[in-house]
Model the fold of this input.
Amino acid sequence: MYKLLFGQKRVFEDLSLLLLRLFMGGTFIVYVSKKILNFDNYVILFSDKLDLPLPLLNLYLVIAVEAIGGVLLLIGLFTRLATIPLIITMITALFLVNLEKGFAASNFGMEIPLAYISILFVLFAFGSGKFSLENKKTSE
Done:
């Protein structure tokens, strides 16, 4: 039993990376759909509440980063590269939106963005794993 659980380290590592990729990719796709469905509200958020310069351009950039990055994470292609702009986006959101609200997720605090940044960093450090298009491409 011990060997069954702990003797398959590589399989569990690859399965863990797959689950992290699917979770984060799916999460970013959901965020993109929310931004598209509530586009006008997000323009107001970016311009009035966050006081960002060129709010429309910034919103389009965030949507593009989250959509492209989310899809790349889901399929496991260019995973390390995809995590870089996603990490930058999450750090920016953390400072612009969540920092002043404390830590707790219930107050829209830093808890969730920090968790996402941590997961993205793991994916950056370890890549997409065996169960990915990236691995399929390199094994041929």
